[in-house]
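Deliverable D4.2, example record:
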Amino acid sequence: MHPTRLCNLRCRHCYSSSGPDVAESVPIGLLSRVVRDAAALGYDVLNVTGGEPFLYPELPGLLRAARDAGMRTTVTTNAVALNQRRIGLVRGLVDLVAVSLDGDQPTHDRIRDQQGCFTKALAGIRRLTEAGIPVGVVTTLTQGNATQLGDVAVAAAQSGALLLQVHPLEPEGAAGLLMTGERPDAVELAYAAVELGRIAEEHGLAVQLDAVPRTLLTRKPEAFMAAPVGEDAPLGSWLTPLVIESNGAAVPVAYGFDRRYWLGNVYERSLAELAARWDRRPLLELCRATWQRLVEGRTGPLIAWYGHLVRASRTPRSATAGR
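Output generated by the structure prediction step:
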């Protein structure tokens, strides 16, 4: 869920093109209803991102609505705006806070387009852990920072983080203009996988790379929405993630997914009604065609599935049909 695109930074890799002058946001009353509908559809985790979620005044109320609906909750933040007051407002309402840390200090500050962000992020991690809130670190993998994952791990572990998640850069939003040519290739993905294995062993961090082994892709098509889905299957049992954008759009898989596949807008109809009316067949056809192309094509041992799927959603449907 993206309740707002307001942010205290204007990051070079921001897929939602958020910033200090972007005031787009969704009222808490509407989002609370969306959360209840999502829980009824089978979703059990709410991740709040942005923009900067801690600049959304109703963040505590949103997290409370999710908890009341039986959901676990996570928040993704740049941690620059974190202080004791803001942390206190969400204590007891969030299961994990994910802090973005995109390399060593020079690299992180360059991507954030502001000096001092690296130091502030580490301070935010320490404040969260001191408050008893579990913290993970999210790193956007680029062509230039794979060799810095060890530095990130040391900084994260020393600050009290428990998890390191690595997500390959996709040229969406601001990144499509400011970081062209920096999307990691098969070499960076393979290096990151090896490095994360070492990090898990040496630093005791849980690690996650947002790329899947080609063998898993081939063996389990159902995990990639590439197998038939029963008409009565609850949305939350197979469509993950479901994204609510800051303009109310409900889309599958990722922010900015092509509107040909969207469910609709929660300003116009409830999420429950959008889900009931939605024709899932075009998305499932897209997933199957993309899966088949990757299985049959020349790819590396690791595949950034969601990135491939987002890019496939932008192509004319006739170009992917039957492939």
